[in-house]
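[Amino acid chain]
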Amino acid sequence: MENELPEVNEIVVVRVIKVLNYGVFVELLEYGNEKGFIHISQVASGWIKNIRNHVKENQIRSAQVLALDRSKNQIDLSLTKVSSGVQRRKIEDYNRLFRAKKLIEVLAKNKKMSFDEVWENTAEPLLDEFDSLAEAFNE
């Protein structure tokens, strides 16, 4: 389910946790809230007078992984490399997966089983047959 770290060039969903004059610290929502950093030069194309005009704390965005240092668990990201269409689709996909996970949690609680057990027995077979859990639940 949740991987340790993303791959370089992967598009990930992030939440802005701290905005500084030189960049933005974020948490990667799909990767157990791993921390990442977006340098000011990767926040927006062109010159940035005030970084807070481009990003706000607690904002959800999509970012591309630029570099990864597994030994330091350091992840460098970019907002400029993600088009608005890709950003919108990625966040929609994340929200659908989040809702599906919540449904699996409710199912696990009702059946008095662990989340992992229900995921393995329910979600994984559905993902083999459908492209996403949202599509499977809609059927």
Notes: Residues 84-138 form one domain. Residues 1 and 119 are 9 Å apart (CA to CA). The first strand starts at residue 11 and ends at 20.
